[in-house]
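Human: Respectfully, please carefully check these tokens:
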Amino acid sequence: MSALPRFDRAIAATPATAPLTVAVAEGDGIGPEIMAATLEVLRALDPSLNFQPLTVGLEAYRAGHAAGLGPEVFEAIDQHRVLLKGPITTPQGGGYKSVNVTLRKTLGLYANVRPCVSYAPYVRSLQPGMDVVIVRENEEDTYAGIEHRQTDEVVQCLKLITRPGCERIVRHAFEYARTNGRRSVTCMTKDNIMKLTDGLFHQVFDEIAAEYPDIRSQHQIIDIGTARMASRPQDYDVVVTPNLYGDILSDVAAEVAGSIGLAPSANLGLRAAMFEAVHGSAPDIAGKDIANPSGLMLAAVMLLQHVGRSRAAENLHNAWLRTLEDGIHTADLWQEGLSRERVGTRAFGRAVIARLGLEPVLLAPVRYPESTPCSEARAPVVKAAAPASQKAFDGVDVFLHWNEAGRSASRLAEQAQTAAGAFKLSLITNRGVRVWPQGHPDTWCSDHWRLRFRGEDARAIPALLTRLLEAGLEPVKTENLYRFGEQRGYSVAQGE
């Protein structure tokens, strides 16, 4: 049985007996119940721990905070540096923003670390013995949350990948592997399709992997990589991915290991950290005292490690393992012939308290080495990107809302060519597929078109847009085309 992993910490370590205050947000749905059980265990474990409650989630939304939290939340986190957070319900529609995303991006919590561990046979597992850690970039990608409706039929989501963001998370994954005695790091992207964004992540991975010759490295395409991890998890150790893939992959891995309800998560930055269970708020079972608090308790284990209280983390984790081993199970873990006592949320927490100081007998007990002082924790190195030797303007992509002439690409090309002026129309695509010149008659077209104009002078773009408007064409977006040295800074069209 592997211990939950160690990682670089963002705050100064305190002596194990010194008072320490942790910011706490109980969350929504089952959040108050599982948080109460977890805090009861923590108080019994370490009386020097104090907790400052914060209002986050539905109550904050209803108070008029669109992000689900008020300014006092950031003030508390700035003071205490660590937050233990329950699951949050984000209302649909109405411009509400995800609390998790807001906290991660505002506080610079760039690394999401999710250990996915099997606890078979006490927890049913598709892969007994699974022990994989997903290191997910936590701020960028489609989670930038930049979306626009551009036509009657088409909405857009921008995917943003930065070189510094890639360097930071990839280096974190390798440092993490080295610190925790992990043997390999696997990068998963979709750069066979997204050659610029995911291609950059892959490129940075290869560059940084060369700095860690003691750690095996490999790259896989995310779809087949996910399938193989689910069927052969023993081939994986640490996996690093961009944001969206990591979100999905870590849920898959947690479920394959046993239950997403047991999975903890650490969100780590240079100055602050947030710890939470992976699962949602489960409003359908809220208030019934049947929710399993294990995911949040294991998140508390990670928090204790983070603040340098390794003995307390070890004690809590081993007591939790012993509780599982003794057959004290909540309803979601109940197995006929194996489980001995079905308990609710509060009773499970008290069973863990009763076993503090004990270790499992059949499951391997965890051992946490003394933590390195945080002042010695190495911040991820980010190298400034070298400016391209030459940045040259190649033209402009103009996106149009156009729904005339039976959506004939040839007819659109005729209208656009009359307005080209100093530019030359070279290409029209629809949903990324070339439809002019030499489009295929079976390609279905929406009302959203990309027109690629070649030219050498970016200053001519305003005049181009004016002529398009005068021709009855409606631009909704532009993207300049550049070459960076010998490299094209834009994608080719499908079919081009």
